[in-house]
Every structure is written in C-alpha cells, then in structure tokens.
Amino acid sequence: MNTLYDALFAPHAGSGATFLETDDGFTLSYGAFVERAAQMAHVLTEAGLQPGDRIVVQAPKMADTIALYAGAVQAGVVYLPLNTAYTPSEVDYFIGDAEPALIVSDPKSADGISGQSGAKVMTLGEGGTISPLADGKPKSFETVKRGKNDLAALLYTSGTTGRSKGAMMSHGNLLSNAIALCSLWRMSNKDRLIHALPIFHTHGLFVALNTSLLAGTRVRLMTNFSLDVLLEELPRSTLLMGVPTFYTRLLGDSRFGRNVTESMRLFISGSAPLLAETHTEFERITGHRILERYGMTETNMITSNPLDGDRIAGTVGHALPGVDVRITDPETGKELRRGEIGMIEVRGENVFQGYWHLPEKTAEELRPDGFFLTGDLATMDDDGRVTIVGRAKDLIISGGFNIYPKEVEDVLNAQPGILESAVYGVPNADFGEAVIAAIVPEPGVEIDIESVRASVEPTLARFKHPKDYRVLTSLPRNTMGKVQKNVLRTQHMS
Ligand code: AMP
C-alpha cells in the first residue's frame, strides 16, 4: 500500500475522463496521466533514486511536472518543489540543505545549477531531457509501499523572516487534508477547476491538485495567471481557487460580472487576507460570496468558511473536520476566552512532521500536547469562527501598547479613495516602535494625507495613530499575494 498513491492516483487507472487541459488546447485523461506518472517513476528509479530520497524540482507549470510529482509519490521519492523565481544561488541553499539525489530544472536555468552538488541534474520544460526519456518507459510501475507517516514532500517555507525551513509533509498529512477539503467544498467529477496558481506552493500543489485528484475534477491548467484567459474560461468552469489578488484584478476589469460567472459554483480565496471590501464588492457584482479559507505550509489547511451557511467577510471560518484549533496567550500558552486576541494553535493529522534537520526549531513550535504554533494572531467567536488579526511578528508594540496592524488597515481601507494599505512598525527611540502606514490610492485619486489623518484618527486610540504615512502606487507582494512588510520596513529605514 502507498497511502497517497492509492487514494489520489490508482483509482483513475484506465479512466477516459479528462484530468488536465492546458493553454495549448492539449487534454490529458486521468488514465493517461496515471500511465505518465508510471513512466516518470521509472525515470526516477533508473536515475538511481531510492525511496526516501529527495528530488528538487524547479520546473515550469505543465502536465509533465504534475506527472513527475505523481511519479515521485509512486516511487516513494520525496518531492521538493521550488519557486521558479529563485536564482541559482538561492537554489544552492535548498540543495545544500535537502541533499537531493536528483535536481530537475528548467532547461533555461539548468546551466547555473549543474555542477553545484553531487546530485544528478535533469531538465523539464521545452527541450528538456526528462519528457523524451519518459516516453520510452513502460506505462505501469510497481508502486513502492509507503505508509501514512512516510514523507511525501518537503516544502520550504517562504522565509520572509529568517531562513527558509523545509516542512516535512507525510502521506497522511496531505491525504487527510485533501479528504477534509474535498468533502467540505463538495468537489466532484462534475467540477471544472480553473488552476491559475503556481504548483510549487501548498495552495496550487496540494489544496488545488490533491483535492481535484481525489474528486476526479477536471482541471484547466493555466501556465500563468492571465486575466484574459481567466475571463474566457470562467463561463466554462465551476471552481476557482485563488489568492486575493485574483479577485481584486477581476473586479478591476470591466468585462467581469454576473454574465461570465453563471456556470461557476464556487470561488475560493486563501494564502493572504481577503479584504472584507473585496468580498462585498464581489458579491455585489456577481452574486457569489467568495469562500475564504486559511492555512499554511506546515499545517495544510486549518479553517474554512462553510459551503452551506454563512461565509462571513473578514473571517476564515471554522476548523476543518479532524482539526483542533485553539487561541492562546502567546506568552503563557494558556487558552484564552472567546473573543480575546491570541495565537492560533493547531493540532491534527494535517500538521507536518517537523522541520527538516531542525529538531530544536520543530520543538520550539510545538506544544507538548501536539499543538503547533502558527504565529498568526486571531480571535475565535462563540461559534468557533476564526478572525485573523495579523501575524505575531507583525504585531507592533509602541509605548508598551499592542497594535494589531489589521485594525488600523481596516480603518484606512474604509476611507474613500484608498484602495489598500499596509501598517507596520519601525524602530523608534521614544516608543520602541512607531506605527507607519503605507497607503495605495485608487487609480486616478490624489490622496491628501492630512484629510486621511483627520478622518482616521478620531476612530482609533491615540497610540494606534500612524506617525507617518507613505503613498505608494502598489504594495510589495510575493508570488502568493502576501504583502511583504519586511520590504516596506527596509525601504522606510533607508
Ligand atoms: P504559507 O505557508 O506560504 O502558505 O503562508 C501561511 C500564512 O499565510 C499563514 O500563516 C497566514 O499568515 C497567511 N494566510 C493564509 N491564508 C490566509 C487567510 N485566508 N487570511 C489571512 N492570512 C492568511
């Protein structure tokens, strides 16, 4: 038995149903995909990979990259996808840390990679070596046995503070989460998912693909996010999983509206906070209420708004089935009363096996009773619904008072003419930290800082007032749409 393979891939053997549709009009059936995965598994074992070995994959988003993931699962190899934007010297760090037996890179960037480690290098993408090699391999492979505690993947955290750490994900971690999401969102073989996320991150790889594989969902694989393609595909689809930026971009396009979303069943958002305003505006324009969920690399998904029942703007919903969530005092670890702000802690089969080669770091982030410290601050209401107020590391302490940036951002965002904002702290001799607000005006709007100040400050306690405002044309974000406050802080200080 192979926990993940048996659930996600094996059941599709021989199926003629469509799995992938790519930008060039190519379609791949589920049955053909399972055969392609077997060919990839042969490539891996013939390259000398043993169960438990790591394979680093920095490759374009294409059907064969997904087949390589499936082939790695089937061969018992640990899959380690990397952000395609990483430079060869950044990739070097991951290679040194994970000690892979094989590195698969885009032919375009392979030169920088080869020769840097003892690992073999192969290429995937236009003109790459793996695909033609796989063509000649048998279409079935004797699946390597793997239990639920065996590693299936090593996913490096985005590392916006400190060095990036490898989160060890077991077969059981990934499968339990796929099962929970799939049933909660009622995914089926009648769905057609628009997949516009990168496949090197938990969102695009596990949340989107593992659930689709489990449900037999048809997947329209978009190589890159493109508003034009998305608008063309929406009328033929039922599901979209996106980061908040997808939704703000759709709302900013005059072609978007009720007429293109009639066949859609569900819009899901995650990986970064969705503004309540985006949620409301989206409903006004389309009649659909975006379903927001929350999770992180180390834990897979933790909470989700309900499919039936209220999807409340600004909240991330309830703990998933089989997942325990509690809110605690970050200092003492004591569970707080409902409504109080504290750290989100999570326990369940979804929670990872620890950080690769970092047992002390792992121990620091796990309570003795198995709860993982997410680093996210939130409240939980009487119903168990969670509302995130920010990252613990983004918490500003000014003059001894705690300031949750989101509270100030919400007030700023509600001002006419302000599109979005980011509030962060910078070192300050008098207060320890000073509150700074970066604001992005709506297109064509000239913002008058003094009138923003005058309208915002009466609603906030004095210690929360931004000491300084910066007007930007956009906020710095990473590929998953997260605002990079570290970048804002550095810019501010220089
Ligand atoms: P990553 O490991 O890259 O998926 O990042 C995980 C972090 O993204 C979480 O710890 C949260 O801070 C943030 N995040 C994910 N989903 C949401 C959400 N729906 N709302 C607010 N923050 C989110």
Description:
This protein is 29% helix and 25% strand. The relative contact order is 0.09. α2 (30-46) crosses α3 and α10 packs across α11. β9 (192-195), α8 (202-215) and β10 form a beta-alpha-beta unit. It is of the alpha/beta class and 494 residues long. The strands form six sheets. Strands 2-1-10-9-11-12-13-14-15 form a nine-stranded mixed β-sheet. A four-stranded parallel β-sheet has the order 4-3-5-6, with helices on both faces. Adenosine monophosphate binds next to β13, β18 and β19. Adenosine monophosphate binds at residues 157-158, 202, 270-273, 292, 294-297, 316, 374, 376, 388, 391, 480.
Q: Percent of residues in beta strands?
A: 25-35%
Task: Tally the helices.
Answer: 15
Major sheet size, sense and barrel closure: 9 strands, mixed
Shape annotation: globular
**Low-pLDDT stretches:** none
Radius of gyration: 23 Å
Report how far the terminal alpha carbons are from each other. 56 Å
Helix content: 25-40%
Strand order of the largest sheet: 2-1-10-9-11-12-13-14-15
Bound molecules: adenosine monophosphate
Question: What structural class should be given to the helix and strand makeup?
Answer: alpha/beta
SS elements, strand count: 24
**Mean pLDDT figure:** 94
Secondary structure layout:
Blueprint: H1 3-9, E1 18-22, E2 27-29, H2 30-46, E3 54-58, H3 63-74, E4 78-81, H4 88-98, E5 102-105, H5 110-113, E6 120-123, H6 130-135, E7 151-156, E8 166-170, H7 171-184, E9 192-195, H8 202-215, E10 218-221, H9 227-233, E11 239-242, H10 244-251, E12 266-269, H11 276-286, E13 291-296, E14 300-304, E15 318-319, E16 323-328, E17 342-348, H12 359-364, E18 372-380, E19 386-391, E20 396-398, E21 401-403, H13 405-413, E22 418-428, E23 432-441, H14 449-456, E24 468-471, H15 485-493
Helix pairs in contact: 1-7, 2-3, 7-8, 10-11
